[in-house]
Amino acid sequence: MIRSRFAASMVAIGAASLVLAGCGNNDTATEEEVATEEVVAAVEPNCAIGTLLPQTGNLAFLGPPEFAGVDLAVKQINEAGGINGEEIVHLVGDSGDTSTDIASQTTDSHLANNVMAIVGAASSGVSLTVIDKITGANVVHFSPANTSPALTEYEDNGFYFRTAPPDTFQGAVVGGLVFDDGYDSAAILALDDAYGIGLADNFEKNFVEAGGTVTEKLIYNPQAAEFSAEVTAVKGSSPKAVVLIGFEETTKILQEMIKQGVGPDKLPVYLVDGNLSSAAYADLPEGIMVGVKGTLPGTATPDAVKEALLSVNPDLEDFSYAPESWDAVNLIALAAAAGGSCDGATVAANLAAVSGANGGEKCTDYASCKKLLDEGKAIDYEGLSGPVNFNEFGDPSVATMGIYEYTANDKYEPIDFITGDVPKP
Fold first, then answer.
1. How many angstroms separate the CA atoms of 358 and 337, rounded?
2. What percent of the chain has pLDDT above 70?
3. DSSP character string of 253-264
4. Between the chain's N and C termini, which has fewer beta carbons within 10 Å?
5. 194 and 86 in one domain?
6. pLDDT tens across 359-375, in order?
């Protein structure tokens, strides 16, 4: 685990009322390197956040944009005067995945450094391995990317929050999308974890309610060496479409589907946020991904924001969850500012209020929101990922889901955005 290192040369770019500046360099490390790096000295004072984001593991492709979103927010907050005069500090940490113990080690280090909040994990399954440890220490556990419904009613003592909506929402959108596209039968291939199972269940529920039939529902081991049996079972069920819910192993599954003659050029495939990637499928047969659709929480990332993120990391190929990460840090800082303390309990107690759960004057970045707080006004933060407005579970009560379509193996474009209330349990 290392301190975030700001780039020597900053590039400021305007995006609406947002001013973003590049910082940090989060190179991918091996699991062994991340697990054994020395922990930085304890932070004095404690206006610190720790990240628990994937530098390694099966969601490592989501790490770079998420780290970039965090660092951009930290830089802007400090340029706006910090939290009640104190700079916010970012302690970088890897989450690994559920096949390692990296998340637990990172969490222990962050707690030892007296952080007020831990941002992450990207994987719902990883978050579920450390949520008790984090919330039990009265530290805010704030994920920009967790979507498992299992986290909605989890006993977290009021310390768990997320900017991504639970998959009760994404499941409804995907279910409606597949049926509205004219496919009344579908097979589901989903990885075996809280995210995969939760999204598969919610897709099935909504698809069946719309009038569709699920021909096969297969929960697979994402660590498997190959997926021939799973693809054979799906093929044998004769679906009109396939919903593929996974992470980096999706590439292997698509390769096997192509091999068995049911690739995306033969059988419509729908992806989700965990595998919507502009890099993972570049080496598949040319053009085979064209027409594949997928979903991703949040609104379109503005070009100016993409430019800011690219100034942080010119090699960025995905921007998934960068807006949600940016919003997470801003909300944490605003909650601390509103409560007058960089303390986990104070942050947790004020997050719903600064998100606009009880109304307030709308604002879109830390500087403008902090100005309103200083004037004694209630605020309603609306960031890059859209309105948040936390409900009693720490979930956003309203969310936007983007629908994307591939125009090439390495490029997808937005075709629609759906905003609505997030279903409660």
1. 18
2. 89
3. HHHHHHHTT-ST
4. C
5. no
6. 999 999 999 999 999 99
CATH number at residue 384: 3.40.50.2300
Rounded Cα distance between 234 and 255, Å, is 14
Number of domains in the chain: 2
Q: Which two tokens stand for residue 218?
A: 């297969």
For 419, other C-beta atoms within 10 Å of its C-beta total: 11
Run of H or E including 277:
none
Instruction: Read off the tokens for 124.
Output: 């719902």
Sheet holding 361-363, edge to edge: 361-363, 379-383, 386-387
> Which residues are registered as beta bridge partners of 245?
190
Buried b (16+ CB within 10 A) or exposed e, 131-168: bebbbebbbbbbbbbbbbbbbbebebebbbbbbbbbbb
- Pairwise CA distance, residues 278 & 326, whole Å: 21
- Tens digit of pLDDT for each residue in 189-218? 999 999 999 999 999 999 999 999 999 999
pLDDT at 17 over 50: no
Q: Are 359 and 380 in contact (CB under 8 A)?
A: yes
**The model's pTM:** 0.84
